[in-house]
Structure to design on (232 residues):
């Protein structure tokens, strides 16, 4: 069993729809949960991070973490064609920035105009 | 702030040759840099963790004699793929974290990646 599971998609939705992206994990030591967006042939860029359980909102993006279920989600409201990318969840156990991250496989998202 | 660059962005080399990829932190000092490999439609797989002035720590299954990592300064780490073969063709991405490292693991900044094609 992989430490982090993510549905690879692809996922296609019409512009303006709400998008839900999810990851499950098995390692209860994970404390930090991140979502990255990666455009084709580019490096990942951090979208949001959450520490422990709870919700966090930033504009059209909402991240949710349920540690009891080992399940995290990213919601995108009012989706735009520019949101078309691969979304990667990532998790870390330690507090410090020099500790390694474990990534999901990524979900390819296409927003149809 | 927190910009990481990689050079080259794309390299083609012949089988059996070596190729060097540079990762630079442009506006901060990076005590730790990470090297990842990403195959098409797959996730980032951590290859090694590199601390300035120390030997890199390689993940299980990664050949340290084939993937040479040098982190000689606080702004530069290099990955050299020695005796490259077509199966080494991949997208190589580095990330860096700042000198103090007191932030969480979300404070890793990723480079734009280097596409290696071995013919």
């Amino acid at each position: 069993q992989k430490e982090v599971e993510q549905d690879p998609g692809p996922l296609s939705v019409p512009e303006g729809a709400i998008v839900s992206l999810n990851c499950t994990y098995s390692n209860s030591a994970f404390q930090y949960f991140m979502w990255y967006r990666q455009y084709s042939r580019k490096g990942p860029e951090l979208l949001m991070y959450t520490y422990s359980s709870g919700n966090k909102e930033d504009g059209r993006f909402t991240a949710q973490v349920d540690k009891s279920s080992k399940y995290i989600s990213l919601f995108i409201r009012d989706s735009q064609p520019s949101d078309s990318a691969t979304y990667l969840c990532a998790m870390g156990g330690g507090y410090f920035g020099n500790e390694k991250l474990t990534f999901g496989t990524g979900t390819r998202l296409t927003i149809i105009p | 702030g927190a910009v990481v660059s990689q050079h080259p962005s794309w390299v083609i080399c012949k089988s059996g040759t070596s190729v060097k990829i540079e990762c630079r932190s442009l506006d901060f000092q990076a005590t730790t840099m990470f090297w990842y490999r990403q195959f098409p439609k797959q996730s980032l797989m951590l290859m090694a963790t590199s601390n300035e002035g120390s030997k890199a720590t390689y993940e299980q299954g990664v050949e340290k004699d084939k993937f040479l990592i040098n982190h000689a300064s606080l702004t530069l780490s290099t990955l050299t793929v020695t005796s490259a073969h077509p199966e080494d063709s991949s997208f190589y991405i580095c990330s860096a974290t700042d000198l103090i490292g007191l932030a969480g693991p979300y404070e890793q900044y990723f480079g734009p990646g280097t596409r290696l094609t071995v013919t």
About this structure: Residues 18 and 47 of chain A are 17 Å apart (CA to CA).
